[in-house]
User: Which sequence fits this backbone?
């Protein structure tokens, strides 16, 4: 994982930008192919799931919300309940990093140009700074 842990709680501590830059629409052809996604689970979330490293293939144009929905189908209700509230919003104590960028907005699209998108998810419990 390429993220400084002090930046997980205080983004300004490491000068980390939030939300990755969106790909230019002229470069992203959302009609073709799929996106390879590698998801790693950390912290308390890793402790409740037997899978900590998960590979997914999603259609081009997929968002972070699509990744979480696919993971929810694969890992079940315990995963979804720890990451999302009843309204489908991300819990405050859940941190998402996409290719090293902290992401808060679930509608953030995945970049189809990158070949493989790396997503890291951590749940911060009190001992971890949550």
Assistant:
């Amino acid at each position: 994982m390429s993220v400084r842990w002090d930046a997980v709680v205080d983004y300004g501590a490491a000068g980390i930008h939030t939300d990755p830059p969106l790909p230019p629409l002229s470069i992203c052809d959302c009609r073709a192919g799929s996106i390879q996604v590698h998801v790693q689970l950390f912290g308390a979330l890793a402790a409740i799931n037997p899978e900590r490293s998960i590979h997914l293939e999603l259609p081009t144009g997929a968002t972070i919300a699509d990744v979480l929905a696919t993971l929810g189908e694969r890992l079940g209700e315990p995963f979804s309940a720890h990451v999302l509230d009843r309204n489908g919003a991300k819990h405050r104590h859940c941190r998402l990093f996409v290719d090293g960028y902290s992401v808060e907005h679930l509608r953030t699209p995945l970049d189809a140009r990158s070949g493989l998108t790396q997503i890291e998810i951590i749940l911060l419990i009190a001992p971890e700074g949550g």
